[in-house]
Design a protein that fits this description.
By secondary structure, the protein is mostly helical. It folds into two domains: 3-70, Orthogonal Bundle (Arc Repressor Mutant, subunit A), CATH 1.10.10; 75-227, Four Helix Bundle (Hemerythrin (Met), subunit A) (Up-down Bundle). Helix content is 66%, strand content 4%. The chain is built from eleven helices and three strands. The chain has helices at residues 3-21, 33-40, 44-56, 75-96, 102-120, 124-139, 144-156, 158-167, 175-185, 189-211, 218-227; strands spanning 30-32, 60-63, 67-70. A three-stranded antiparallel beta sheet has the order 1-3-2. β2 (60-63) and β3 form a beta hairpin. α5 runs antiparallel to α6 and α8 (158-167) crosses α10.
């Protein structure tokens, strides 16, 4: 692929990805590759590459006759994704805590301050940058290969995260991040890993309830128990109707 084609495919990837993430292309939407290429004014080669990248993120599914479908958002898909994150990210934190330097901890504090600032304004577009950096800094010392995978998993969860930030009862809360960081500062890798696992699971449980209040994430609960973490307090409580909140600024 030429540099020009690569640049075109990257631009198409970003354009279509953002349309999926912000809901312009709703889950289940079927798109013709031919029509999409015409609409974007590009050739099929960069489009195919862009669609391949989107499919690798789980954002689209291949359909017969050269059509693609925006992947549905389901509690079972979210549960599977969270099980992987809970398992890998908690272990990565255990490996990282003993290797954290004062500079690492200071950087984490900085990300926390940025998150709090943008959360107060409910500015998701800016908030997600330090949020992503915070999670990657927590596990950075575990190694590049592991963090590359964790970064991909973080991106795969973006649609669910945006749903949570708009409706979830604890979406803008920073207490969970603070508790994790405080455990890291004390050098308590086991507590930090348990708190991180519980933090990730709480988001998944809340989003699962938004998607399907009747869904029971049994496998995720089992995975959480294996980490030694406690189930988030709201799990198992009677389902409550969540008031619609002001949409996040994305």
């Amino acid at each position: 692929m030429t540099d020009e084609a690569r640049q075109s495919s990257d631009q198409v990837y970003e354009q279509v990805r953002e349309a999926i993430l912000n809901g312009e292309l709703a889950p289940g939407t079927v798109m013709s590759q031919v029509a999409l290429a015409d609409e974007l004014g590009i050739s099929r080669t960069p489009l195919r590459e862009a669609l391949r990248m989107l499919q690798s993120e789980g954002l689209i599914d291949a359909e017969p006759n050269r059509r693609v479908r925006v992947a549905p958002m389901t509690p079972s898909d979210l549960e599977d994704l969270c099980i992987i994150r809970v398992t890998l990210e908690a272990e990565a934190l255990r490996l990282s805590v003993p290797r954290m330097t004062p500079e690492d901890l200071a950087g984490l504090e900085g990300y926390m301050a940025e998150m709090a600032h943008y959360a107060a304004a409910e500015d998701y577009r800016r908030w997600v940058v330090p949020h992503r950096a915070f999670h990657r800094a927590l596990t950075a010392a575990a190694g590049d290969r592991l963090n590359q995978l964790l970064g991909q998993l973080f991106d795969y969860a973006e649609r669910y995260r945006r749903l949570h930030i708009g409706h979830g009862p604890s979406a803008w809360a920073t207490a969970g991040h603070r508790d994790i960081l405080d455990a890291c500062k004390r050098g308590d890798k086991e507590l930090g890993a348990k708190l991180l696992a519980s933090h990730l699971a709480r988001t998944a449980f809340e989003v699962s309830e938004l998607l399907d209040p009747a869904y029971e994430p049994v496998k995720l609960k089992e995975a959480l128990e294996h980490t030694g973490a406690e189930l988030p307090t709201r799990v198992g409580a009677p389902a409550k109707k969540t008031k619609k909140r002001r949409a996040a600024k994305v």
